[in-house]
Amino acid sequence: MKARRFGGSAVAVALVVGLTCPLLACSSGASRPGLEGIVDAATRDAGSTDATSDGAPVQGEAGPGDDATASSDAAGAGDTGVAPGDDGGPGDATGDDGAVFGPPPPPPACTKNAAWGTGAPLDLSTPGDDLLDALTPDELSIVWTVVNGAAKAIHYADRASTAGAFAAQSLPAGLFTNARVALSADGLRLVVVNADGQGFSQIARATRGDAFDPNAALATAAGYDNFAGVLAPGQSYGDPVLAASDTAFFYSVYGGGADGGQADAGAPTIFRAARLRPTDAWPAGAPLASSTGLLPQGALRRRPTGLSSDQQTLFFWDEITGSERAAWMDAQSATGAFDSFVDLGTRSLAVPSASCGTLYFSAQGASSIDLFSATSH
What we know:
Layout: E1 14-16, H1 38-46, E2 120-121, E3 129-135, E4 141-148, E5 151-158, E6 167-170, E7 175-177, E8 182-183, E9 189-193, E10 200-204, E11 235-242, E12 248-255, E13 270-274, E14 286-287, E15 302-307, E16 313-318, E17 323-329, E18 338-343, E19 348-352, E20 358-364, E21 369-375
Antiparallel strand pairs: 1-7, 2-21, 3-4, 4-5, 5-6, 8-9, 9-10, 11-12, 12-13, 13-14, 15-16, 16-17, 17-18, 19-20, 20-21
């Protein structure tokens, strides 16, 4: 079994287009940590447990540093200018004591006690390490990063139905940084981290099946302008994840400290921006309300990888425990904090389908990290 380590510069990455410095090109060379330890964890566990077949997780299982209550000083979704519920997520009217009035929220799309079946490898897997970046909720478009030693490339694929075969393409060679790529729910927009880590840009195409051309005029920062020029010295963006509604945007803000971690030790690194309509520009986001289960420890942090269609479940790679995890929101809380956690075994970089009946992820294959999907039962 081949063991590869996802080093700081050999990680899931956001592409930089062949433009001459504007928007996506000309990396500053700033050091941004990668998904350290994913392959190590996959290799470690593969000897005793099938990396794609786990039993049902313990409901609400907490790991190191988890807290069953929301942080009292964490900023909530309301700090973005949109109250919980305004963007299609959970929420309702609240009283002075924080109690939520109105009917109880529906159960989350992703259940905490789901048992995932044996993962089936996707035909898209390559001889290199295939690191899942994003999937559309309808499961018809997928994007991932292929790592072969120091070489990295963004691949994407589309299909006409979930029973059909994917047709894969890759982006033209260019300069890459070690941040992940997000994909809009309609499969028409890639969201990437700019090479200097100081903003986001998108690359659009007219229809599924078309190629993403990073040199086209559609490669633009339009809609993401409010993220530029707001970071403190030494900080960077990363880990973009778009909600299915296209009205919520999750991402990371990290760095600034002497050890590569937060300048303010223990400060949140996962942020959320919300907008009323998909055509609105994104406002600058605010730290995600959460328990300590989503906070960093030094330079190690929790990195969002996927989001359920109802925004009640956040999937993330935990650099502290070296494992993929899922966090559930308390939908009846006025803060909308994610405060209940489940480990996802040897899977990594997980992204759910719209119903959460299928989970896509990366895991150790026969000789490298491959792409898999598994259904719940």
